[in-house]
């Protein structure tokens, strides 16, 4: 087990390291001048040149990268105007535009994104696996056909349409819910819940369609296996076959896919975040990419990458718990 | 006399295929009296398993069209409602399934699975059901049943899984046991144990037995009546002694004569070139798998010689290392230690590049003709591949040569462009042989070349191999778990156990006067076709008569 954890940890470190290298390389070849963009239109060439010096953009790219690594492991100092700004390890740098520490920026937004992603996952798993199971139990009947059409529609409609419709219906027309605003869980759990309900639902509706189809197909596959036939031949009821014998096997791909989805959601739920005005990581990275704010982009990407790798490690562990034949190596 | 335990009349089962239906069982009648045992024998596709499934109404809801009448214990299986049918399943008639690895749920402990079945039919507590599971597991000979009941199927050996499936069938004390190929995936010694167990249980519980199998030897010692099926119809039926002893129908006679026998070999190939020069020599050949803690020695110091033009048989049970040895002989696997001398040259440690000129002389025919042919390439292309790799012939010559090879193995050269799925198992194995012959090898290692085939097809493929050897002067290494087939084809035989050769000699020596106790045990476990002899052998295996 310790060997497994060690290998897993090394793999994770390697992935994250590769990510940072790739981002620096991409930024190096991308067109545009971060200093000009950070400074804005009113800046003259002199100011831009000065800013470029302050940001360290005149250094060769490998030195910039080396400074980044140094900040990450040992902390570093930045000259901000006249004074010096110290940034403790792990330091992801400071934003080109706002001079804010990237670590702080991320820590402010992480709870928002985490709330959104985890809550949405709970709903999409309930909805998706539930309707997938229902369509298997009612296969060949009307319920199945209705569910199939609904899930098809679900995969086809973009999240901002569903989100917009939900907003119009529940907040504007029926006025059952206030327009969502984000309130931290620690401040007021009740408001946190009501504020996130619509974002969760719209995200989950889209995702659950995928999960319903996956659950259905993998369940049908499992139901065709020999051991299911054994229990059918011993008079076990169809419902029990599905819930006790087929579900566990059928959930394996669902677990794997949720891990990927959950991880990715940590940086790419930008549409949902924008629509509902949630100050999350997705919006942060999009705005930072637009102004070539390299430290922020690297920081958010690392967080996303980390969550993907972590979610996959958790999924593998769940596999091993669900199926004793799986040995973690 | 009350109603028979099983009464089937005019049973017809048709499966939907594309737009039409395929008739798997065609107007079959059968009866089984309480406490009697009936064997249904047939080759693959004869409809024997379809009949067995029909007894439990398992075709319901599958889209199959079933007509006729099936009565089990007085219940009209084809017409009762689902609830009543579920009562029949497991309570009145229980099925012992084939292929024990996939027939149990991999996620739950074995004991729980049996307890679950018990609770479907009996209103008892979970604890009582678990106790019953342990009881039946103990009855079928699972050692330390209380503890092993908590194991999952993958922690059991093949024989133990098959025992567990029998235990599951016993749980509710059914009046009928339906065993569908219960020993097909097992080694001979384990097969003998399982058949003995079924025999004992029948004597003890008085349950009827319906035994479905392709193996006439399995039927001989285990049933009273036999029904021979072909293409969904009954060909011949009667008491086992009559059907196997004096068959009336041509098909039954063909089937019987195709069964290879350990005691009376029909020589194939007829090569008596046992005095040829040594072609391939293994000295202390060894192979390990895994690293450090998980290291397993698959082949442990094997020394043997393959002479030019002879057939060396290698027999052993699963896990004895015979496949690993075979792959090392053609250098598909690298030996961990030991020497491999081909025509005097040590090729055991030769690098890939130095080995290349010799590769074409050492070929292999694989067990599973389905998975060893690329389903997306035509068979002609598959046979041409080794010729292309050799790079000595141009395209036109290759086409000609492939045509010759197809003809040589008894296939139509016009079939060059057909794909593997269009062929039967036997034909696919012929393709595999043609592919091995293509580069004009001196030695072919055949790894279980006929174990996936029906007896009649098996006989034809064995015949072909013998013929090819005679005509081309090939050396063959014939690896199989089936002792009878090995005797039929081999000049000399090596018996393997746990990675080592325990006995090596001419076929007659090994089979007529086995020296090693393991060889003796193997030979006594081989099912025989004579029912009287089978009973005697069973008694010999259990010196104390069983209650």
Automatic annotation (TrEMBL), chain A:
<feature type="transmembrane region" description="Helical">
    <location>
        <begin position="9"/>
        <end position="30"/>
    </location>
</feature>
<feature type="transmembrane region" description="Helical">
    <location>
        <begin position="114"/>
        <end position="137"/>
    </location>
</feature>
<feature type="transmembrane region" description="Helical">
    <location>
        <begin position="249"/>
        <end position="271"/>
    </location>
</feature>
<dbReference type="Pfam" id="PF19300">
    <property type="entry name" value="BPD_transp_1_N"/>
</dbReference>
<keyword id="KW-0812">Transmembrane</keyword>
<comment type="similarity">
    <text>Belongs to the binding-protein-dependent transport system permease family.</text>
</comment>
<keyword id="KW-1133">Transmembrane helix</keyword>
<feature type="domain" description="ABC transmembrane type-1">
    <location>
        <begin position="110"/>
        <end position="315"/>
    </location>
</feature>
<dbReference type="InterPro" id="IPR000515">
    <property type="entry name" value="MetI-like"/>
</dbReference>
<dbReference type="InterPro" id="IPR035906">
    <property type="entry name" value="MetI-like_sf"/>
</dbReference>
<dbReference type="InterPro" id="IPR045621">
    <property type="entry name" value="BPD_transp_1_N"/>
</dbReference>
<keyword id="KW-0813">Transport</keyword>
<keyword id="KW-1003">Cell membrane</keyword>
<feature type="transmembrane region" description="Helical">
    <location>
        <begin position="191"/>
        <end position="209"/>
    </location>
</feature>
<feature type="transmembrane region" description="Helical">
    <location>
        <begin position="291"/>
        <end position="315"/>
    </location>
</feature>
<feature type="transmembrane region" description="Helical">
    <location>
        <begin position="149"/>
        <end position="176"/>
    </location>
</feature>
<keyword id="KW-0472">Membrane</keyword>
<dbReference type="Pfam" id="PF00528">
    <property type="entry name" value="BPD_transp_1"/>
</dbReference>
<protein>
    <submittedName>
        <fullName>ABC transporter permease</fullName>
    </submittedName>
</protein>
From TrEMBL, chain B:
<dbReference type="InterPro" id="IPR003439">
    <property type="entry name" value="ABC_transporter-like_ATP-bd"/>
</dbReference>
<feature type="domain" description="ABC transporter">
    <location>
        <begin position="280"/>
        <end position="523"/>
    </location>
</feature>
<comment type="similarity">
    <text>Belongs to the ABC transporter superfamily.</text>
</comment>
<dbReference type="InterPro" id="IPR050319">
    <property type="entry name" value="ABC_transp_ATP-bind"/>
</dbReference>
<keyword id="KW-0813">Transport</keyword>
<feature type="domain" description="ABC transporter">
    <location>
        <begin position="6"/>
        <end position="256"/>
    </location>
</feature>
<dbReference type="Pfam" id="PF08352">
    <property type="entry name" value="oligo_HPY"/>
</dbReference>
<dbReference type="InterPro" id="IPR017871">
    <property type="entry name" value="ABC_transporter-like_CS"/>
</dbReference>
<dbReference type="InterPro" id="IPR027417">
    <property type="entry name" value="P-loop_NTPase"/>
</dbReference>
<dbReference type="GO" id="GO:0005524">
    <property type="term" value="F:ATP binding"/>
</dbReference>
<dbReference type="Pfam" id="PF00005">
    <property type="entry name" value="ABC_tran"/>
</dbReference>
<keyword id="KW-0067">ATP-binding</keyword>
<keyword id="KW-0547">Nucleotide-binding</keyword>
<protein>
    <submittedName>
        <fullName>ABC transporter ATP-binding protein</fullName>
    </submittedName>
</protein>
<dbReference type="InterPro" id="IPR013563">
    <property type="entry name" value="Oligopep_ABC_C"/>
</dbReference>
<dbReference type="InterPro" id="IPR003593">
    <property type="entry name" value="AAA+_ATPase"/>
</dbReference>
């Amino acid at each position: 087990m310790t060997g497994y954890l060690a290998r897993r940890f090394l793999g994770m470190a390697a992935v994250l390291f590769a990510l940072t290298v790739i981002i620096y390389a991409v930024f190096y070849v991308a067109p545009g001048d971060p200093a000009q963009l950070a400074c804005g239109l009113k800046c003259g060439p002199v100011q831009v040149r000065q800013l470029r010096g302050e940001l360290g953009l005149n250094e060769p790219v490998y030195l910039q990268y080396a400074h980044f690594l140094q900040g990450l492991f040992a902390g570093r100092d930045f000259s901000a105007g006249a004074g010096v700004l110290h940034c403790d390890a792990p330091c992801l740098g400071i934003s080109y535009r706002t001079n804010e520490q990237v670590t702080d920026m991320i820590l402010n937004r992480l709870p928002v994104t985490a709330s959104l992603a985890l809550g949405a996952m709970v709903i999409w798993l309930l909805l998706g696996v539930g309707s997938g199971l229902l369509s298997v139990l009612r296969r060949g009947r009307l319920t199945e056909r209705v569910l199939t059409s609904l899930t098809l529609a679900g995969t086809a409609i973009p999240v901002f349409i569903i989100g917009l419709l939900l907003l119009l219906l529940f907040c504007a027309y029926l006025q059952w819910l206030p327009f969502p605003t984000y309130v931290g869980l620690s401040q007021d759990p009740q408001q946190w819940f009501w504020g996130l309900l619509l974002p969760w639902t719209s995200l989950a509706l889209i995702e659950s369609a995928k999960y319903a189809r996956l659950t259905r197909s993998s369940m049908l596959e499992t139901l065709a296996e020999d051991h299911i036939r054994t229990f059918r031949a011993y008079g076990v009821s169809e419902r029990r076959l599905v819930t006790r014998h087929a579900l566990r096997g059928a959930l394996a791909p669902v677990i794997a896919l949720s891990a990927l989805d959950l991880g990715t959601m940590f940086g790419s739920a930008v549409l949902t975040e924008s629509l509902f005005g949630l100050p999350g990581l997705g919006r942060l990275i999009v705005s930072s990419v637009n102004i070539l704010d390299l430290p922020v982009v690297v920081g958010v990407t690392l967080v996303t990458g980390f969550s993907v790798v972590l979610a996959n490690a958790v999924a593998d562990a769940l596999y091993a718990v669900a199926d004793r034949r799986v040995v973690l190596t | 006399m009350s109603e028979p335990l099983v009464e089937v009349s005019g049973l017809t089962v048709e499966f939907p295929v594309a737009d039409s239906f395929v008739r798997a069982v065609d107007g079959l009648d059968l009866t089984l009296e309480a406490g009697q045992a009936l064997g249904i024998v047939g080759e693959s596709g004869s409809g024997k398993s379809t009949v067995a499934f029909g007894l439990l109404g398992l075709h319901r809801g599958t889209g199959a069209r079933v007509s006729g009448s099936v009565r089990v214990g007085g219940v009209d299986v084809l017409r009762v409602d689902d609830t009543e049918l579920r009562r029949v399943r497991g309570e009145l008639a229980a099925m012992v399934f084939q292929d024990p690895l996939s027939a149990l749920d991999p996620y739950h402990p074995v004991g729980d699975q049996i307890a679950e079945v018990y609770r479907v039919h009996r209103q008892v507590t979970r604890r009582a059901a678990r106790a019953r599971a342990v009881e039946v597991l103990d009855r079928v000979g699972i050692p330390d049943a209380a503890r092993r009941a908590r194991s999952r199927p993958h922690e059991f050996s093949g024989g133990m899984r098959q025992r567990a499936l029998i235990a599951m069938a016993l749980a509710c004390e059914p009046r009928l046991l339906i065993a569908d190929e219960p020993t097909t995936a097992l080694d001979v010694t384990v097969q003998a144990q399982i058949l003995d167990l079924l025999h004992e249980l029948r004597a003890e519980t008085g349950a009827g037995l319906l035994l479905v199998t392709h193996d006439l030897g399995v039927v001989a010692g285990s049933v009273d009546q036999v029904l021979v099926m072909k293409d969904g119809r009954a060909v011949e039926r009667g008491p086992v002694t009559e059907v196997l002893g004096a068959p009336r129908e041509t098909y039954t006679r063909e089937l019987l004569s195709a069964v290879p026998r350990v005691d009376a070999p029909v020589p194939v190939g007829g090569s008596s070139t046992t005095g040829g020069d040594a072609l391939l020599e293994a000295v202390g050949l060894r192979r390990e798998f895994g690293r450090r803690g998980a290291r397993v020695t698959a082949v442990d110091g094997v020394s043997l010689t393959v002479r030019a033009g002879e057939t060396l048989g290698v027999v052993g049970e699963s896990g004895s290392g015979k496949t690993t040895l075979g792959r090392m002989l053609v250098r598909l696997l690298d030996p961990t230690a030991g020497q491999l001398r081909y025509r005097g040259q040590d090729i055991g440690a030769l690098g890939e590049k130095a080995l290349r000129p010799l590769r074409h002389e050492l070929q292999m025919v694989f067990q599973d003709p389905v998975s060893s042919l690329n389903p997306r390439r035509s068979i002609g292309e598959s046979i041409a591949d080794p010729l292309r790799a050799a790079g000595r012939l141009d395209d036109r010559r290759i086409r000609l040569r492939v045509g010759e090879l197809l003809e040589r193995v008894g296939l139509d050269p016009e079939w060059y462009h057909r794909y593997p799925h269009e062929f039967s198992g036997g034909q696919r194995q012929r393709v595999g042989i043609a592919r091995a012959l293509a580069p004009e090898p001196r030695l072919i290692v055949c790894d279980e070349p006929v174990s996936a085939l029906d007896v009649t097809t098996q006989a034809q493929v064995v015949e072909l191999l013998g013929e090819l050897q005679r005509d081309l002067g090939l050396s063959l290494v014939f690896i199989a778990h089936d002792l009878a087939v090995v005797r039929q084809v081999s000049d000399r035989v090596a018996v393997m156990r746990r990675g080592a050769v325990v006995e090596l000699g001419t076929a007659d020596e090994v089979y007529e006067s086995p020296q090693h106790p393991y060889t003796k045990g193997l030979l006594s476990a081989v099912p025989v076709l004579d029912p009287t002899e089978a009973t005697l052998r069973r008694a010999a295996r259990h010196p104390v008569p069983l209650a």
